[in-house]
Q: What sequence folds into this?
């Protein structure tokens, strides 16, 4: 009699979906399950999309403009179709999508956010599909109900899609790189599942997703390792039914982007050997001078702990952490050992084909490019957790359900999760997802304004010098609040003393506060750090002009023009008028209009000089009127200075009644804008026009230095 071989049972593995034969769990019809799944997809799109709805009005933030509208690579593609710069980039596909957005929408942000939000919604649906597929493959007594499997998968996708920790990747336009790398990684894993299920054509989708992911951002290069981890846990038994070449072919296709990735990534891993430019300052790789690989590695454990804490309790989210290197061995060594233990446990569990083992190892594998030994100047940023957050949420959801099941079975080993308990779990998921969605909505509100964003950052990370510089710059340049800006700029510059632009902004703040001697020193420091910084020369000229040092001011403005700052011609016109040379002033203004036709103030200033200059051979009231009406479009302007110039041109042309009305309009606008000095001057001119007289000026009444009023 042949010996019976007892079939080994793995309690964590059952490759059928609806439990063993004789199970009392009714098998739902395929049609009802499919309808439920479709409803769940629709619910995900509705809820996740709703939580991010306000993103369409979020403006360019921080380095968005640098990477898009001021990016020479993007401009070359948009203007000339030159794609060579994009192909030389480490993330060519991501850059190309931004370039296409700029070509179609320019600075209209809704188009950029539409692409980002659609990518996030598709990623959420991919997470749902993969979680559902994994539950079908790993059905246990706990999850043998198909509807319960769907609800579990949906809970993971919903909590991830609405989680506020993903908001930075979705809202911050330039982080589309992170979004696309994660999306194509998910699509590649999904394709691998289809290949394992017998769809050979899915090899094409796998290859396309693998390549596009790596061409979007570096973390997607971890795909082959993720597939190996996924295969051992979820694809057991599937490959025995397939041709033997199919599995290695799929893995080789997943590895194939490394042929491009490895030589490309070496350009920033070892920039000193490839770039050959002493002026290049890398922000990532082993060429970062201020950050060694050991500094970076020993700081990452506490940062990863912070990421996990935010995954569970997402409060105090921060745009820019400005995280300092951890130098205390009593902190980083215990964390390093703890992480080693986690990795060891994860390896053991994965070898035993445990889902928890996959979740632990996949979390560390995907974070490895940005959170291990490769130095990146920004030690901690939230968008790096975009895809790893799925694994944390899956770990929490599975553990919670396992815990509930274990508690139920303490008194009754045969107890199972009943419908009322399942409803309680579902309500808990809805409450958590609702809270996440509301927090995401609130986080999106913070991104609506650069000022709000940097105020929030400084409040949460008061030691962040870069955040203080950014906030101080906004306050001095756009909010006209130099008193609040000064301490922020002075504190921030202590860590950025080699940045000429930081000294430039500090000088502008000091100038506005009347601290002219200190402003000269700061502007001079900016010029010494970058002798070809045209805007610093222009600011230094303004400071000299305020100090009545016309010779030094003129020299600085000429250098500003020489180093690509044509706006300096506007200020040279001011000096020419002060020196009694209106002909040179007109020449400077004409040249400025030719170089910068969009700079409206030059038209207004030119019209003022043409209408009021004492030299009859230079005066031309009719031309002044044409400039103001056709080029400046004064009728739709709310600029008191423009209406003042318009009144002077009308008077010069003999239209005194219209000149008086225009001057009164300018007076009202000046008072509305709080320009008391201008208002007093216009009030005097109203009386002149009322007396049928014209106004003559040497240019000082509207001299307007760029950077000053007007």
A:
């Amino acid at each position: 009699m042949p010996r019976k071989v007892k079939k080994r049972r793995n309690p964590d593995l059952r490759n059928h979906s609806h439990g063993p034969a004789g199970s009392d769990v009714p098998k739902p019809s395929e049609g009802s399950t499919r309808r439920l799944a479709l409803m769940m997809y629709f619910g995900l799109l509705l809820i996740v999309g709703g939580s991010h709805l306000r993103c369409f009005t979020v403006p360019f933030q921080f380095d968005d403009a640098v990477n898009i509208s001021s990016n020479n690579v993007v401009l070359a593609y948009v203007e000339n179709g030159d794609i060579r710069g994009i192909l030389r980039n480490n993330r060519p596909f991501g850059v190309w999508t931004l370039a296409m957005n700029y070509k179609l929408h320019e600075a209209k942000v809704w188009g950029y956010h539409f692409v980002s939000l659609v990518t996030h919604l598709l990623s959420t649906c991919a997470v749902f599909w993969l979680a559902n597929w994994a539950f079908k493959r790993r059905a246990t007594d706990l999850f043998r109900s198909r509807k319960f499997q769907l609800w579990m998968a949906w809970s993971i996708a919903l909590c991830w899609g609405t989680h506020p920790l993903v908001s930075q990747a979705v809202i911050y336009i330039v982080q589309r790189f992170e979004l696309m790398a994660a999306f194509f990684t998910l699509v590649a894993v999904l394709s691998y599942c289809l290949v394992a299920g017998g769809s050979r054509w899915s090899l094409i989708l796998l290859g396309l997703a693998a390549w596009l992911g790596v061409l979007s951002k570096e973390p997607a290069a971890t795909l082959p390792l993720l597939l190996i981890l996924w295969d051992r846990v979820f694809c057991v038994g599937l490959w025995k039914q397939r041709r033997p070449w199919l599995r290695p072919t799929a893995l080789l296709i997943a590895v194939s982007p490394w042929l491009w990735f490895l030589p490309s990534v070496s350009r920033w891993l070892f920039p000193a050997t490839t770039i050959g430019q002493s002026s290049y300052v890398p922000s990532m790789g082993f060429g970062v001078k201020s950050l060694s690989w050991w500094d970076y590695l020993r700081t990452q454990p506490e940062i990863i702990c912070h990421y996990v804490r935010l995954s569970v309790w997402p409060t105090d989210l921060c745009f820019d952490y400005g995280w300092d290197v951890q130098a205390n061995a009593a902190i980083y060594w215990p964390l390093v050992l703890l992480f080693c233990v986690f990795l060891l446990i994860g390896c053991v569990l994965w070898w035993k084909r445990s889902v928890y083992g996959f979740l632990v190892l996949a979390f560390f594998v995907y974070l490895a490019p940005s959170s291990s030994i490769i130095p990146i100047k920004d030690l901690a940023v939230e968008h790096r957790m975009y895809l790893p957050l799925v694994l944390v949420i899956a770990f929490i959801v599975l553990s919670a359900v396992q815990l509930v099941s274990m508690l139920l079975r303490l008194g009754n080993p045969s107890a199972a999760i009943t419908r009322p308990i399942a409803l309680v779990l579902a309500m808990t998921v809805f409450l958590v997802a609702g809270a996440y969605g509301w927090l995401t909505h609130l986080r999106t509100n913070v991104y609506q304004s650069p000022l709000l964003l940097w105020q929030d950052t400084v409040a949460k990370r008061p030691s962040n010098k870069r955040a203080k510089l950014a906030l101080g710059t906004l306050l001095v340049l756009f909010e006209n609040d130099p008193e609040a800006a000064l301490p922020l700029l002075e504190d921030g510059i202590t860590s950025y003393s080699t940045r000429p632009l930081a000294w430039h902004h500090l000088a502008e703040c000091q100038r506005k506060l009347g601290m002219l001697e200190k402003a000269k020193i700061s502007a001079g420091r900016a010029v010494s750090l970058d002798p070809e910084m045209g805007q610093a020369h222009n600011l230094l000229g303004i400071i000299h002009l305020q100090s009545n040092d016309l010779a030094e001011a003129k020299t600085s403005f000429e250098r500003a023009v020489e180093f690509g700052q044509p706006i300096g011609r506007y200020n040279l016109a001011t000096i020419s008028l002060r020196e009694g040379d209106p002909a040179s002033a007109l020449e400077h203004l004409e040249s400025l209009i030719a170089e910068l036709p969009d700079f409206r103030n030059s038209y207004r200033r030119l019209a003022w000089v043409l209408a009021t200059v004492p030299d009859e051979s230079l005066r031309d009231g009719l031309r002044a009127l044409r400039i103001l009406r056709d080029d400046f479009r004064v009728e739709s302007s709310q600029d008191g200075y423009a209406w003042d110039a318009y009144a002077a041109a009308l008077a010069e042309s003999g239209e005194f009644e219209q000149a008086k009305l225009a001057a009164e309009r300018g007076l009202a606008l000046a008072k509305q804008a709080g320009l008391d000095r201008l208002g007093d001057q216009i009030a005097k001119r109203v009386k002149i026009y009322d007396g049928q007289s014209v106004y003559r000026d040497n240019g000082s009444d509207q001299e307007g230095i760029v950077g000053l009023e007007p």
Remarks:
- The first helix runs from residue 30 to 51.
